[in-house]
């Protein structure tokens, strides 16, 4: 996504600085708190539903014998049909990321997000009535189409309200809350299985129907309460709005929109890092119940164990990152957690150790996602598009023929983390060098076209 970036000159930055300096700290604190309460709870709930809706195939496909429910009804056990249905969601999800940002600016946050959420809610509801795996595939493609503009829009909106060193905690809280809620999808899915036979429908039909109805309700709530961009908001006073815009302008000079250029897209190919972060996250989301069931746990316990308590890890790393104003070291630590976790899951003999490996992988990947978004938050659409590539990668390398240990997928995930560490080292060196040259007065133009701007590493 294009970053909010007006080429502010020195006088504009100095004016913004004077405005912020003159503000009462208590007034500033109350304003930020008001923004937090307006943005984060609803956005977290919306993304939680999106996360559940895109990954809930795994909830319906937990049986290692593949002999019950949707797997048999739709012939998903044949060849690689499950991976195909999971994978094709990401094709429109990637292709429509950038076009959706143009529509976001045209329709505005409220209307565009309502269209996206209502669209995939209707599709999700329709998935409860499909009769063949081909119909399910079409629904998954439509689901990817409607969700394409959703997550980057939410992240973009959040980053336009806060300073850089306030962003990761908010992204982590937003992402973490949604992941924790989404993590309970296994428990929710198990509870809904008791509806089996009601209305002549199987339990997997009811999971889609109930989640579809919930999504449609949230689309209505989104239209009523979602926050627009700062300069178009309707819940702050004029003084509070000016404060928000001045703080962002002073911090990075991006309170007003700029156009996408090819140079910017090429400059932010660091989005490969986001692919490396999302790949294990999607792998865990789609295959965790299958792997757990292969360890000998029942369907019920597999669903319950797919809700690991990794929330503390995610928010702790985010808090430390914003506190120290460092990104790269904490991303590297979490990449190593994923690497070790995948190795344990693939090669350990004891099931308890293998489950601990899944825990490490989930904890590391859930923390890396908001960390990478905060690391290069100025190109959200390009970054999130690469995240969709990570989803395709995850659903294709964890192959049916590799069940139950999925060693091919384990090594692919480990390779992604090694690539993450290499890219992190290269980009960190590049940004550190740019910062040093600017401090030494050897650069003719300010970084990112913004006076006073330095990269956060």
TrEMBL record:
Chief location: membrane
Any Pfam family hit: MFS_1
Transmembrane segments: 111-130, 142-161, 173-192, 204-226, 269-291, 303-321, 328-347, 353-373, 380-398, 410-432
UniProt keywords, alphabetically: Membrane, Transmembrane, Transmembrane helix, Transport
Domain of life of the organism encoding this protein: Eukaryota
Membrane topology annotation: Multi-pass membrane protein
Localization annotation: Membrane
Record has Membrane as a keyword: yes
Domain Major facilitator superfamily (MFS) profile: 42-457
Cross-referenced InterPro entries: MFS (IPR011701), MFS_dom (IPR020846), MFS_trans_sf (IPR036259)
GO MF assignments: transmembrane transporter activity
Cellular component GO terms held in the UniProt record: membrane
Gene3D superfamilies hit by this protein: MFS general substrate transporter like domains
Record-given protein name: Major facilitator superfamily domain-containing protein
């Amino acid at each position: 996504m294009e970053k909010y970036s007006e080429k502010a000159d020195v006088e504009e930055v100095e004016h913004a600085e004077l405005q912020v300096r003159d503000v009462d700290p208590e007034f500033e604190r109350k304003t930020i708190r008001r923004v937090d309460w307006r943005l984060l709870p609803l956005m977290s709930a919306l993304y939680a539903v999106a996360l559940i809706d895109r990954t809930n195939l795994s909830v319906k496909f937990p049986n290692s014998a593949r002999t019950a429910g949707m797997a048999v009804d739709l012939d998903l056990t044949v060849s690689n049909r499950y991976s195909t249905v999971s994978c094709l969601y990401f094709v429109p999800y990637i292709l429509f990321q950038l076009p959706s940002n143009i529509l976001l600016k045209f329709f505005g946050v409220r209307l565009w997000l309502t269209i996206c959420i209502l669209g995939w809610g209707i599709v999700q509801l329709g998935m409860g009535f499909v009769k063949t795996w081909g119909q399910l595939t079409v629904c998954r493609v439509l689901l990817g189409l409607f969700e394409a503009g959703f997550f980057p829009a939410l992240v973009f909106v959040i980053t336009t309200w806060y300073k850089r060193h306030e962003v990761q905690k908010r992204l982590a809280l937003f992402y973490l809350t949604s992941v924790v809620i989404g993590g309970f999808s296994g428990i929710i899915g198990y509870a809904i299985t008791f509806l089996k036979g009601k209305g002549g429908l199987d339990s997997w039909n009811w999971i889609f129907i109930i989640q579809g109805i919930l999504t449609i309700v949230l689309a209505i709530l989104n239209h009523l309460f979602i926050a627009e961009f700062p300069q178009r908001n309707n819940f702050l006073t004029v003084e509070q709005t000016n404060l928000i815009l001045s703080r962002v302008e002073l911090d990075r000079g991006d309170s007003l929109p700029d156009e996408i250029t090819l140079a910017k897209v090429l400059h932010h190919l660091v989005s490969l890092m986001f692919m490396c972060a999302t790949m294990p996250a999607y792998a865990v989301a789609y295959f965790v119940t299958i792997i757990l069931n292969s360890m000998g746990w029942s369907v019920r316990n597999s669903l319950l164990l797919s809700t690991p308590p990794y929330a503390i890890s995610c928010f702790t790393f985010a808090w430390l990152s914003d506190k120290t104003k460092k990104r790269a070291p904490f991303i590297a630590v979490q990449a190593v957690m994923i690497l070790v976790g995948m190795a344990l899951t693939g090669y350990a003999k004891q099931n308890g150790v293998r489950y601990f490996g899944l825990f490490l992988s989930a904890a590391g990947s859930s923390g890396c996602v908001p960390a990478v978004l905060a690391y290069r938050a100025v190109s959200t659409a390009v970054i999130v598009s690469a995240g969709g590539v990570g989803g395709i990668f995850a659903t294709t390398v964890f192959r049916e023929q590799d069940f139950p240990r999925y060693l091919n997928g384990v090594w692919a995930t480990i390779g992604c983390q090694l690539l993450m560490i290499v890219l992190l080292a290269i980009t960190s060196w590049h940004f550190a060098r740019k910062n040093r040259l600017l401090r030494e007065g050897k650069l003719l133009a300010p970084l990112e076209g913004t006076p006073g701007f330095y990269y956060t590493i």
